[in-house]
Amino acid sequence: MASAQETADSVDFSQLLVPALGVLSGALLVLWTIALLRSRRVIFDRNAAERVRIELELSLAEQQGRLAIIRELQDGAVLTIARLITRAEGARYTAESDPSTAVRAATALVDDGRVALADMRRVLTIVREGETVGALQPGPQSTRDLFRVMRDAGLVVSFIESGDRFALKAGAELAIFRILQSALSNALKHGGVGTEARVSFTWTRDGLQLLVDDDGIRAAARRDGKDAGEQVARTPYTIEDDLKALSESIAGPGITQMRERAQLFGGVFNAGTVPGLGFSVSAVFPSLRFHNGVHGVDLSR
């Protein structure tokens, strides 16, 4: 009888233990999910701050360079004005006793005044350029820094470049950098961590084609641990989806800014959904080598 009672107590305890363990497991899973989301948010915020830091460093380097030039020109202008005042005083004292010497001094005053005026105009030009540009024009290193930051944020970035690269004007290089930056940021924002972004630069004799393709739609299935077959099954699309993607007009502040940057340098901008896969951004610049940001002109002729 006692053995039967012990068996019954053991069964009752087991029946209580299983639900308790289930509740505990569920609570631990919820806590783990919350911690993971917080961790991803911290990583995203950290990398967003890193992007801001890079932009601020570029801007600071540019402004420091401009200030150094302004200081040099200002020092030269101050010396010229001091010499101009000294000669003016000498001309005043010799005007009555030696008019010919006063005339030569006045001529020198004019020359010194022109030099000082030219230096001050250069200072104003540099200041105005700084207000217009506001940042060091991104170059190859800036692009590599951008790729590094986006990879740290969770985007899988691959880069292919073909053709012979040529030097770009400052404004054109900045426009391309901003288009690339916006396209990669959108891929991470809408596709999420683990999204693959394929960037390609194709250089022609006078132009450049920029292409950014991502698999943001497919990445969601990949994050759920599905294999390749299940990923395709979870991201179906039809002919109607293809037709819609070809005819739809993508709108939004980011898309508009990228389109305007491309058009400024004679570029043709396109952006659209790739059904079942992700998103694609392209900017084609037919005559970027000679484009001055206002109209395409071969400036070498």
From TrEMBL:
InterPro entries: HATPase_C_sf, HATPase_dom, Sensor_HK_TwoCompSys. The keyword Glycoprotein does not apply. GO terms for biological process: phosphorelay signal transduction system. Coiled coil: none annotated. It is an enzyme of class 2 (transferase). It holds the Pfam family HATPase_c. Its EC number is 2.7.13.3. GO terms for molecular function: ATP binding; protein histidine kinase activity. The chain crosses the membrane at residues 16-37. Keywords: ATP-binding, Kinase, Membrane, Nucleotide-binding, Transferase, Transmembrane, Transmembrane helix, Two-component regulatory system. It catalyses: ATP + protein L-histidine = ADP + protein N-phospho-L-histidine. Residues 173-286 form the Histidine kinase/HSP90-like ATPase domain. The keyword Transmembrane applies. This is histidine kinase. The lineage of its organism: Bacteria, Bacillati, Actinomycetota, Actinomycetes, Micrococcales.
